[in-house]
Design goal:
By secondary structure, the protein is an alpha/beta fold. Helix content is 37%, strand content 17%. The protein contains eleven helices and 14 strands. The strands form four sheets. It has an eight-stranded parallel β-barrel with strand order 1-2-5-6-9-10-11-12, surrounded by seven helices. A hairpin with a 6-residue loop joins strand 3 and strand 4. Helix 4 runs parallel beside helix 6 and helix 7 runs parallel beside helix 8. The termini are far apart. Bound molecules: (5S)-5-amino-3-OXO-hexanoic acid (KMH) and zinc ion. The site of (5S)-5-amino-3-OXO-hexanoic acid has 13 residues, from strand 6. (5S)-5-amino-3-OXO-hexanoic acid binds next to strand 6.
């Protein structure tokens, strides 16, 4: 019988959706982001997907100096692949969103493959009081945001970062985004093997049903054949179950407090590492092996951890 492919675990440490009120575990100081990222790598994450936060109040920031406060510490302490988000806080320009990647030239970056509603405003109703002033409006007003990722934006990112040989985590929140990606490959923006993150359960994107995972995978098979590698991110309550299904289908998985604050139904996770340890246990119990950072580098054709600028 053919060997089953190893499962690459990505851990998304803090993101731009959740706020400090929602969980004491959500890291926002440089110390906490670095510490949780290192612990997640030790627990089995081969890739660390990173956003920055303002240390004073946990607000989302795209300031490269905020990344500078934790990136070198993560590099010194782990072999894990560093992936810097270009998602920003939904309000930033595309130029602001790529500034950290341009400065630090990581092995990977996220790249969002279409414009969409991207909302988490229903979360605002769950809290009566907030730790910091900015949080309530930020969450409640997300029903007014359009997450802008036009073809021109995507081309700007691809061209600006091409000299850095960065592999993209192509964030696809719906089936149309796969067709956008195919179009971008046809005009020469990206080289195989591409890495697709299928995203389920964001309000504005496709829902977290297994049917949708099969549909996204089948569509990607048709559009990209052998030219792609894939991973699954289930937002909120769908995180662990969709990751389990993905790994059983031969795919890779993403967990982390960016995507869900929970470790099981109704129970907040204590840390990113706790989520990594849980999915690792499930993956291994079900007969798969977890990929090391170097195995992830090989699978995705990455440039190497010695060719970053931090
Ligand atoms: N927060 C995730 C649903 C990005 O950083 O570019 C998507 C994400 C986007 O990770
Ligand atoms: Zn992200």
């Amino acid at each position: 019988m053919a060997r089953r492919p190893k499962t690459v675990i990505t851990c998304a440490i803090t993101g731009a959706i959740h706020t400090p009120t929602m969980s004491d575990a959500l890291p926002y100081t440089a110390d906490d982001i670095a510490g949780q990222a290192i612990a997640a790598a030790e627990a089995g994450a081969a890739i660390l997907h990173l956003h920055a936060r303002r240390p004073a109040d946990g607000g989302v920031t795209i300031d490269p100096d905020a990344f500078a406060a934790f990136l070198p510490r993560i590099k010194q302490a782990t072999e894990a692949v560093v992936n810097i988000s270009t998602g920003g806080s939904l309000k930033n320009t595309i130029e602001e969103r790529i500034a950290p990647a341009l400065r630090f030239s990581p092995e990977m970056c996220s790249l969002n493959m279409g414009s969409m509603n991207f909302s988490f405003h229903p979360l605002a109703k769950r809290y009566d009081s907030w730790k910091f002033d900015w949080e309530k409006d930020y969450v409640a007003n997300s029903d007014t945001y359009i997450f802008r990722n036009t073809f021109r934006d995507i081309e700007t990112v691809a061209n600006a970062l091409a000299p850095h040989k960065i592999k993209f985590e192509h964030e696809c929140y719906d089936v149309g985004h796969l067709y956008n990606l195919r179009f971008c490959m046809d005009i020469g923006l990206f080289k195989a093997p591409i890495f697709i993150q299928f995203i389920f359960g964001i309000l504005g994107g496709i829902g977290p049903e297994v049917d949708n995972l099969i549909f996204m995978k089948r569509t990607a098979d048709r559009l990209f054949g052998d030219d792609y590698r894939w991973s699954v991110l289930g937002a909120g309550g769908a995180q662990m179950s969709l990751a389990t299904t993905a790994s059983q289908m031969g795919g890779n998985v993403r967990v982390g407090l960016e995507d869900s604050l929970f470790i099981s139904r109704g129970k907040l996770a204590e840390s990113n590492a706790q989520q990594v340890a849980k999915i690792r246990r499930i993956v291994e119990d079900l007969g798969c092996e977890v990929a090391s950072p170097d195995e992830a580098r090989e699978l995705l054709g990455l440039k190497g951890g010695d060719r970053v600028a931090f």
